[in-house]
Amino acid sequence: MGRGHKAVVDYNRDPSGTAGDALFSALRLDSVVALPSGPFAQAGASSRTEQRRGRVHYPKHYGFDCDTVTKRPIYERLSQFPAGAAFDRFGSPNGYFLGADHDMFPTRSVPPESAAEEYYRYIVGQPLPANLAVLMGEIEEAFAAPGGGTQYMVIRIDTTTGLPTLRRSTDYADITNYFRLTIEQMMDADIIELVYPRATP
User: Fold this and answer.
1) In the chain, what are the domain boundaries?
2) pLDDT digits over 10-36, tens only?
3) Residue 84 half-sphere exposure, CB side, CA atoms within 13 Å?
């Protein structure tokens, strides 16, 4: 665990959540992403080509790091988000994943062009009800990025059995079979709150 670089400084973030956020976001990208050559540039060209062909191949097991022996994804199932946790995301709220607020961009193992996507920050809102749970784990290597960041995904739980609600079949070992909530659904349920960008009054 912990192969990737984790940011541990707060880069003097603006407490109001306004003035410093754009700079904070830029600093976290890490200069290697902007290099005109090298593995990140090559991965960017490759993933753009795959997108044009409609063939973007994301990591298996929703990008969670896997056990080297069993090949199963490694994650913790939590009844609630960690107390005081803050998250962010490159990309629309129609997606399913939240990143740890201080993780550098290369640790997220997303296509390099994702750095140009809309940037959002969230904090924990209301407690999760009994029919939801959080999967939290380390991100594996992908798109020539080292991984090592932390990602969160919210799934539905059958309150009778305590098992994940499945979208198809009965394979509880297949994490891609779990019924997930989008970021937008989490916000609608007040599970998380958007703190950047601030909503227009």
Assistant:
1) 21-196
2) 323 333 444 445 444 444 554 344 333
3) 0
Instruction: Determine the Cα angle at 78 with ends 64 and 168, to 5°.
Output: 60
- Strand ranges in the chain using DSSP code E only, listed in sequence order: 76-78, 86-90, 98-100, 119-124, 132-138, 150-156, 192-196
pLDDT, one tens digit per residue, over 92-103 is 999 999 999 989
**pTM of the prediction?**
0.75
C-alpha to C-alpha distance for 139 and 70, rounded to whole angstroms: 17
CA distances from 177 to 89, 157, 168 (A): 23, 12, 6
| Tally of CB atoms within 10 A around 144 | 18
Round to whole Å and give the CA distance between 75 and 184: 23
